[in-house]
Amino acid sequence: MCLDLGGKLGSGVDPLIYIGPVILNTGDQMARKRNLYNPDSDEPYRLSRTKLENFLKCPRCFYLDRRLGVGQPPGFPFNINSAVDELLKREFDQCRANQVAHPYMVEAAIDAVPAIHPELDNWRKNFVGVSYVHAESNFEVFGAIDDLWLGSDGQYIVVDYKATSKSGEVTLDADWQISYKRQMEIYQWLLRKNGLPVSERGWFVYCNGKRDADSFKNKVEFAVKLLPYDGSDDWVDNVLLDARDTLTNAHLPPSTEACDYCAYRKDASTFEN
């Protein structure tokens, strides 16, 4: 796979740099007032897959964000990753239209084709995605998948695209990649709750930008590797109940030792008092 970076987005616009909107407040910091959890409301509360992951990483940051409206500083999007996602979707959509396996799938001996489903376009849209109302927690959980394949056995296969640039082979062995695995499992859970037969085995289409070229020449070449992952969604229901219990509590939960945001606030506070 090759990504050509020679084009321009317009006068003075770098195609690789995104500067998001910045809100400057004069005076005291204003907490967000929308999308807050109200423990007295009977309406299902929309909770994204990403926010549930935030709860698993740090319940205190999750509470500050969803209950009190104080979110973590936003990260800027990785436009290279977005470009890779878009190009991969175009490739797989061409195979989908013809109901043939993509060459990556053939090389990995995957007996499947890109799936056709009337809801697929919605399931791939950010902020729409696959959704399900979990009655026990009263959360409407949602998440946007990258792709969906259909195996010859009639089971749907969840597919997630990843892009990086590192020396050596890409794997799923790093401790921090547990979030990738949970992401896959949430998608599997959501699709099952929508009535689809879903394979335990999902696939990561992992694109690794090569660093060994002689020169740049306005392009980055990627080595693409398909990595299987056998997921289990047994944990999802209990975590949703834990997240609900956290949000209905009137008190801040403790911070997590591994949370960089909490550590920063704690260290900075020693100089602010």
Topology:
Layout: E1 2-4, E2 45-48, H1 49-57, H2 59-66, H3 79-98, H4 103-107, E3 112-114, H5 120-123, E4 130-134, E5 139-143, E6 147-151, E7 156-164, H6 178-193, E8 201-209, E9 219-230, H7 236-248, H8 260-269
Parallel strand pairs: 2-5, 7-8
Antiparallel strand pairs: 1-9, 3-6, 4-5, 6-7, 8-9
Task: Describe this entry's structure for a reader.
This protein is of the alpha+beta class and 273 residues long. It has one domain (42-269): Lambda Exonuclease, Chain A (Alpha-Beta Complex). The chain is built from eight helices and nine strands. The strands form two sheets. It has a six-stranded mixed beta sheet. α6 (178-193) links the parallel β7 (156-164) and β8. α1 packs across α2. The N and C termini lie far apart (53 Å).
- What percentage of residues falls in helices of 4 or more residues? 25-40%
What portion of residues belong to β-strands? 15-25%
CATH architecture classification: Alpha-Beta Complex
The name of the CATH topology is: Lambda Exonuclease, Chain A
Features:
single chain; 273 residues; alpha+beta; Lambda Exonuclease, Chain A; six-stranded mixed sheet; three-stranded mixed sheet; 8 helices; 9 strands; 31% helix; globular
Nutshell version of this structure?
By secondary structure, this protein is α+β, with helices and mostly antiparallel strands.
